[in-house]
Design goal:
The protein has 1 helix and 22 strands. The longest helix has 4 residues.
Length: 203
Amino acid sequence: NILLAEGRYEIEGSVENKSLVISGVGNPENVILVAQNDGAAEGNCDYCFKGSNVIFNNITITTTGTYYPGYAYMVGTFNNCIINGTYSCYRNNTFNGCTFNVEGDLYNLWTWGGEEVNITNCIFNCDGKAVLLYGATNTKLIINNSIFNEHQRNSQKSQREIHSLLLIIHFSSPFYKAQGMASMQEHHLHLHNLQMLLHLNHH
């Protein structure tokens, strides 16, 4: 187990094929782990945890860039974390009680390489683009009891945009607090040539 005091951290080198628990001590917004751009052709992803199973507790993860930012090829569990910037999923990712923050023409979360992505009791703060279900693999996305806050309305964006994948998606009790949004049905979901089993439970 790794305990991090308040501060800003970057992983130099790699800790591949490990089982790790990384926990922040104190308020999660004061313990910041910065995902690096490894300079690979794939984009802004960080390979430092490749092949590892990592549990993050009570920390902030900050990403940079728009193409594949985040920790690549890692099974990750995020508990009570803050995600600043776009985060791309790989393999299986679970988010419990996390807050996602992004501004501008960016998504909070991209399922790119995620085989199964579980989101429970999370908050998404964005400018209209929360979750992009698009990538290199079939993805099962489960969202439970989560809130999507839209800072400003943009009719060209969707809070969940789904492209051509076979997806099994269960949306359970998603709540929306969008300023200026006329209705959830108006622009919260775009479908493009999609084969999927979709269960929506709106309140």
